[in-house]
Design brief:
It is a single chain. This protein is α/β, with parallel strands linked by helices. It has two domains: 166 residues, D-Maltodextrin-Binding Protein, domain 2 (3-Layer(aba) Sandwich), CATH 3.40.190.10; 141 residues, Periplasmic binding protein-like II (D-Maltodextrin-Binding Protein, domain 2). The protein is 41% helix and 18% strand. It is globular and about 65 Å long.
Length: 330
Amino acid sequence: MLVFAACTREGPKPQKLTLYCSVQLEWCELIVKTYSEATGVQVSMTRKSAGETLAQVTAERRNPRGDVWFGGTGDAHLQAAEALLTEPYRSARLPELHAWAVDPAGDGRTTGLYLGALGYTYSREWLEKKGLGGKPTTWSALLDPKLEGEVQVANPNSSGTAYTLLATWVQLFGEDQAFAFLKALDKNVSQYTLSGAAAARAAARGEAGVGIVFLHDAMTEKLAGSPLELVTPDEGTGYETGCISIVHGARHPEAAKAFVDWALSREAQELGERARSYQWPSNRSAKPPAAAVDLAKLKLVDFDLHRFGRKAERARLLARWEREVRGGGR
């Protein structure tokens, strides 16, 4: 009897973690592989955009299936926090982080992972072919009538990039002037894409003259061999705070906390560059990617994520965009 018990005694069950990942697939796969090898935790990962993940977490609120949500624009994470879809957690690593990353929601329900600045990109070959003269340096340059049908930017209803852009221009110019700018820009837009990175790919392939994007997405295309130039507009620009959150009611809460602690570490954040991701890491000791835009050289707005990350403000601005820009111009 004792021999039978010894032979059938089970060891500790391996820890499990369900990860919702909203950065590019290569980065998602690399963090899963690295974390699993280092800890033995079995990680089940689903890659979706920030908007898609917010919709999934909302749909699953009565029966949560995910544990951690990694990456994606901060406004989506703030909406989840506002709806109490995520769990307060203050990692012991918070003192290691830049101030903008410590508590974006103000209630401990999300933490900043990285920062990515907005701008636009164009092909040197395209600029020469069009005979458009010197290098553009401003947002207002995008209103040039010579650019009619040459600009691509994402739809703010589907893209965190484009919503961050909308919020940026409201903060830079004031709301009424920002919408006047958007209506004027609409004359030059050939397509409102579903995702923000699509505009960078279109510029890289010569399908658009200008792509308004997060600059790290344009850098990915440039380093892949496309003759792209990156513009950080003279008027100033906004940025995303990519976040990490624990899902409220997570099935593996302790494993979720341990993963968040790891994700905020220097070692974990330096994985981004290996996955050809060029955002600025939130951990102050993490070495930024060599190709990352130098934040010290950018004129960044004091981005009010508390205001523009709220559901009601987002809905109001998107309704006005549909009414005055998309609906009025097309």
